[in-house]
Write a structure and sequence with these properties.
The protein is an alpha+beta fold. It has a single domain (2-269), classed as Endonuclease/exonuclease/phosphatase (Deoxyribonuclease I, Chain A). The protein has eight helices and 14 strands. The strands form three sheets. It has a six-stranded mixed beta sheet with strand order 3-4-2-1-14-13. A six-stranded mixed beta sheet has the order 5-6-7-8-12-9. It is globular. It starts with a strand and ends with a helix.
Length: 270
């Protein structure tokens, strides 16, 4: 079995004790991290390697940043989302490891969505443009007919069941129809949204704000997702949300989402 998890750590330096603790206890084969908030040369590579992982990062000072950690060697394919060479934000890293093509994704938040005159804000249009590029690349990955896991912080609640107060978030970039529609486009082209597919009616979240007692009240959002190509979906055995790290001191406001996959060799034997 191969376990692949995604986790927005909200600063790898601030969260390093939580991250190394989780790696040692949960032992994912692959961990897709987002919001590192550090440059590549400042990433705590030694501490992560001591936990038994190979490391690849795309960092950015103070903001963004993504990483792939794997118990097996990592062959990097893309260090940025194809389609816009002028985009310098560190939000995408794609690689082959453990028999899968994996990508760690930190999709733009997109808020505020509107300017003072009611037109779409540039942050929201940037989000939509980024998603259009992701749609195009995700379609190209399908053509390769390989197990693909697109994991990360998508900053999208796919439906109202994924947000604690749908009315309050109706004009938020996480829930606006334009965002949700693009997410559905990826699913409708052939990707499986792992957690919701195996838990069709369950209310559960992967993010809780630090403010207003959101964690204690379970006022959360489900914005961290694993999207699987058909070849990866054929291998999925189990999926879950590990709330343990969120309950600890100095926790990230996100918590890991994970999938457990049958090895390709096992699948062929079956």
């Amino acid at each position: 079995m191969t376990t692949i998890a995604t986790w927005n750590v909200n600063s790898i330096k601030a969260r390093l004790p939580r991250v190394t603790e989780w790696l040692k206890e949960f032992q994912p084969d692959v961990a897709l991290l987002q919001e590192l908030k550090t440059m590549d040369d400042a990433f705590p590579r030694l501490e992560i390697e001591e936990c038994g992982y190979h490391v690849e990062t795309v960092g950015q000072k103070t903001y963004n940043g993504v990483a792939i950690l794997s118990k097996q060697p990592i062959e990097v394919i893309h260090r940025a989302l194809p389609g816009d060479k002028s985009d310098e934000q560190a939000r995408y890293l794609e690689a082959d490891t453990c028999g899968f093509r994996v990508a760690t994704i930190y999709l733009p938040n997109g808020n505020p969505t509107r300017t003072d005159d009611g037109t779409d804000h540039e942050k929201f249009t940037y989000k939509l443009g980024w998603m259009d590029r992701l749609i195009k690349h995700a379609r190209a990955l399908l053509d390769q007919q390989i197990p693909v896991v697109l994991g990360g912080d998508y900053n999208i609640c796919p439906t109202d069941i994924d947000v604690y107060d749908p009315e309050a978030f109706s004009d938020d970039a996480l829930c606006r129809p334009e965002s949700r529609g693009r997410f559905r486009t990826i699913v409708n082209m052939g990707y499986t949204e792992a957690w919701r597919t195996l838990n069709p009616d369950l209310h559960a979240y992967s993010y809780w704000d630090y403010q207003r007692g959101a964690w204690q009240k379970d006022n959360g959002l489900r914005i961290d997702h694993l999207l699987l190509s058909p070849e990866a979906a054929d291998l999925i055995e189990e999926v879950g949300i590990d709330k343990t790290p969120r309950a600890k001191e100095k926790a990230s406001d996100h918590t890991p989402v994970w999938g457990r996959f049958m090895d390709a060799a096992q699948e062929k034997a079956a």
